[in-house]
Amino acid sequence: MLILLPPSEGKAAPGRGKPLELTTMSLPSLTPARERVLDALVALCRDHPDHAATVLGLSRTQLDLVARNATLNDAPTARADRIYDGVLYDALGLDSLTPPAKRRAASRLAITSSLFGLVRVGDRIPAYRLSGDATVPGLGPVAGLWRDSLGPAVLDAMGRGLLVDLRSSMYAGFWRPPAELAPRVATVRVLHEVAGRRQVVSHFNKATKGRLVRDLLEDGADPRTPAGLATLLTDLGWRVEPGEPTKRGTQLDVVVSEV
């Protein structure tokens, strides 16, 4: 089973650590694309900081993030599970998993990244700022670049198992599963229900996905179909309503009334 997660917008910057070495990262087929994005982002932030702030959607009070991007090649790195934070990652609590669950996280989780394409939790990366909807001069839309590169890496990472796609809509645009994978693709939508009314709420969505992934990692089962995943989540206490299979996979609605 491969679980695709979205990144966090904010990131914890390590105070010390080895500098970035792209060749040591997992999924080495992505190295050429990683180099292209990294070089373009560093050059933009180093040579045109004011324009970089606009491209990155930053305010004048966030120019430190531009400066940080300009030094990514030499910035200290840490494991990705210590870099990404925010609601989803707080709920997932990677650092407090049991040892068996941590081993599963290393092999089953992949974080979508505008800078690196896909990141495993053990990959050493620096803190960076680059949103999935950015268009970088000399590179173009980052989503378009990854759309041409991610497919083989995802297929290699998932093997013959199930793909559980928890990416937000922005990062889902980086790569969409082909129709032939549909029987092995499950997407998850979180619905917040209050007084019989359901709606999608960002905070509930992120926190619920974090808790759901934590449960899957701690349980350790490895379902091979969306139906099998729905059964497992139900057994784990989640309220799940599977949709009809489509050429993109099967959507599972997870209904919650509280975080």
Fraction of residues in helices?
25-40%
Provide a count of the helices.
11
The residue ranges in which pLDDT falls below 50 over 5 or more consecutive positions are none
How many strand units?
Answer: 12
The average pLDDT score comes to 95
Shape: globular
The SSE string, one letter per element, is: EHHHEHHHEEEEEHHEHEEHHEE
Structural class: alpha/beta
Give the end-to-end Cα distance, rounded to a whole number of Å. Answer: 25 Å
Strand content: 15-25%
The protein's oligomeric status is single chain
Q: In the residues, how many domains can be counted?
A: 1
The main β sheet shows up as:
8 strands, mixed
Protein name: Peroxide stress protein YaaA
InterPro entries: YaaA (IPR005583)
Organism: Nocardioides bizhenqiangii
